[in-house]
Specification:
The chain has twelve helices and 13 strands. The protein is of the alpha/beta class. Helix 9 packs parallel to helix 10. The structure holds 2-succinylbenzoate and magnesium ion. InterPro entries: Enolase-like_C_sf (IPR036849), Enolase-like_N (IPR029017), Enolase_C-like (IPR029065), Mandelate_racemase_C (IPR013342), Mandelate_racemase_N_dom (IPR013341), OSBS/NAAAR (IPR010197).
């Protein structure tokens, strides 16, 4: 391999337990990794697209296709591009923010590794460790849910998020409150499973003093969220609806959310994620760092982002062991409910070569 190039690598990692949401059940995480090789360094980016387009329109085969056919060729044609200019080079391609985020992250990682600077420092982190929450899937029954929540609380998680859907909402929330008390920081995530006609039903969650309800309505229904917000005491947090800093500004202006879940892999990368953070901070809107079942690579960058000052709520930045028995990097381990922010150059972590080889299902190399 001479000169700059980009590797697309597919890995397949079994989850420690099935993860059920209102849009489906995951048992295996198929991940697309992007490795950018420059004269000075190499860098990694993790694409958060899932196997099927059920959380959002992107999915892993489509991300690989648009990277291979459009995004990587555009980047290689542009010659050496500093990370802040990558988004502009990729802008003629509409959408595909998850694919773009992975490529930009890999370029940024290579740049920072070459310069000996960490993601945390580059993004403006103000903390050395971040408090972590955990996202708890829909279970077969309340006893199974209570066992799962008990285990996570015993591990030290600072906040519990319950996945909900029609038929699994008030009862699990009530059960968790009755068993573990009002002090537990508790929130719910519907992944768009409700409609505006469910407003009165969702108001039944109000007595449980949740931190927030995440994305109850369709991704495109920002106005619907604004109307729902007026019918609920529980603050609305948007996830799927926020694809950019402009989306965040509009949603806040409309009164569609009082909290934002910032998912770097969904908004086109860490630089746009920071702009969302800045917009929210300017409006006094608290944010937290979302997750997409990332490996240690994506987790490292998420934890760095979560150390910015506006991230005042614990994120879905759980320990590696919540997802994978064996991660592709050294595992992130919870300490008193926190994860340490990596301090090494770039992401501060790298894939363990033998482990990476074991879980790799395909690789391809793209050069100009
Ligand atoms: O909506 O936040 C979500 C996982 C996959 C896709 C969407 C979501 C999630 C989670 C888990 O809730 C987040 C994580 O722990 O990585
Ligand atoms: Mg969500």
């Amino acid at each position: 391999m001479t000169g700059p190039g980009v590797e697309l690598r597919r890995v397949s990692l079994p989850l420690v337990a099935p993860f059920r949401t209102s849009f489906g059940t995951q048992t295996v995480r198929e991940v697309l990794l992007v490795r950018v090789v420059t004269d000075a360094a190499e860098g990694w980016g993790e694409c958060v697209a899932m196997t099927s387009p059920l959380y959002s329109s992107e999915y892993v085969d489509a991300a690989a296709d648009v990277l291979r056919r459009h995004l990587v060729p555009a980047l290689l044609r542009a010659g050496p591009v500093p990370a802040p200019a990558v988004a502009g080079v990729l802008a003629p391609v509409k959408g595909h923010r998850m694919a773009k985020a992975a490529l930009e992250t890999a370029v940024l990682d290579a740049e920072l590794r070459a310069g000996g600077r960490s993601f945390a420092r580059e993004l403006g982190a103000v903390r050395g460790r971040v408090p972590c929450g955990v996202s708890v899937g829909i279970m077969d029954g309340i006893p199974e849910l209570l066992d799962a929540v008990e285990g996570y609380l015993a591990e030290g998680y600072a906040r519990i998020k319950l996945k909900i859907e029609p038929g699994w909402d008030v009862a699990p929330v009530r059960a968790v409150r009755e068993r573990f008390g009002d002090e537990v920081a508790l929130q719910v995530d519907a992944n768009t499973a409700y409609t505006p006609a469910d407003a009165r039903h969702l108001a039944r969650l109000d007595p449980f003093e949740l931190l927030l309800i995440e994305q109850p309505l369709d991704e495109e229904d920002v106005l619907g969220h604004a109307e729902l917000a007026r019918a609920l005491r529980t603050p609305i947090c948007l996830d799927e609806s926020i694809g950019s800093a402009r989306d965040a500004a509009a949603a806040i202006r409309l009164g569609a959310c009082r909290v934002v879940n910032i998912k770097p892999g969904r908004v086109g990368g860490y630089l746009e994620a920071r702009r969302i953070h800045d917009v929210c901070a300017a409006h006094g809107v608290p944010v937290w760092c979302g997750g997409m079942l990332e490996t240690g690579l994506g987790r490292a960058a998420n934890v760095a982002l979560a150390a910015l000052p506006g991230f005042t709520l614990p994120g879905d930045t759980s320990a590696s062991g919540r997802y994978y028995a064996t991660d592709i990097t050294e595992p992130f381990v919870l300490d008193d409910g926190h994860l340490d922010v990596p301090t090494g150059a770039g992401l501060g972590v790298a894939p363990l070569p033998d482990r990476l080889a074991e879980v790799t299902t395909a690789t391809e190399w793209i050069t100009g």
